[in-house]
Specification:
- This protein is of the alpha+beta class.
- Helices cover about 25% and strands about 30% of the residues.
- Strands 4-5-1-2-7-8-12-11-10-9 form a ten-stranded mixed beta sheet. A two-stranded antiparallel ribbon has the order 3-6.
- The chain is globular.
- The relative contact order is 0.12.
- About 15% of the residues have low confidence.
């Protein structure tokens, strides 16, 4: 009798686990027994005040569109510049602007071991400039989320989700990488 109760309990537990989170496919390939589910999304307007210590997304777009304005825009925020910046075996940049950061160790001939490193004072950020793209990096989650909200506020919509969430306005792509807290812009 005890074996029967144990086997019935095992079958019941297995059935409950199998039912959790699974869907059955029907002949037409949908997972809800042939019925179509209407999913409505509501576009909400995002209004955010740009962080006053970091280059705003609007200014990043302007600098990317006309790089001759870069030095002027960066000096407004107090960014320092390092020309010919290469992250050893990763990427090479024409310039890197950095604020409240320190440059990492030089490995050889202007090749650094990493991107600029954050300091404790203020909001640390950097802007890496490369011919076909620019990357804005920050070091805390609040500053990163502020930048992502600015992307949405400036009329960009999510084009592709992934490691980098890619937003577009038809003219530019802006890739937001949450794990690295970077915003990368390039032309479509």
């Amino acid at each position: 009798m005890r074996k029967i109760i144990i086997s019935i309990a095992a079958v019941a537990i297995t059935a409950m686990i199998a039912a959790c989170g699974t869907s059955q496919k029907t002949a037409n390939g949908s997972g809800n027994n042939g019925k179509t589910a209407a999913v409505t999304t509501q576009d909400t307007t995002v209004n955010v005040v740009p962080n006053s210590e970091v280059l705003s997304i609007k200014e990043l777009i302007g600098v990317f569109a006309d790089e001759t304005n870069a030095d002027e825009a960066m000096s407004k925020y107090g960014y320092k510049v390092k020309k010919g910046y290469e992250v050893f075996r990763v990427d090479k940049y024409d310039k890197v602007y950095y604020k409240n950061c320190r440059l990492p160790k030089i490995i050889t001939d202007g090749k650094y071991e990493d991107y600029p490193r954050a300091m404790r004072q203020g909001v640390s950020s950097y802007v890496a400039v490369k011919g076909e793209s620019m990357m804005l990096g920050v070091f805390n989650n609040n500053a990163y989320q502020n930048l992502v909200d600015q992307v949405k506020m400036n009329g960009f919509h999510l084009d592709m989700e992934g490691n980098e969430d890619i937003y577009t306005d038809g003219k530019y792509y802006i890739a937001c990488n949450k794990s690295n807290r970077t915003i990368r812009i390039q032309k479509v």
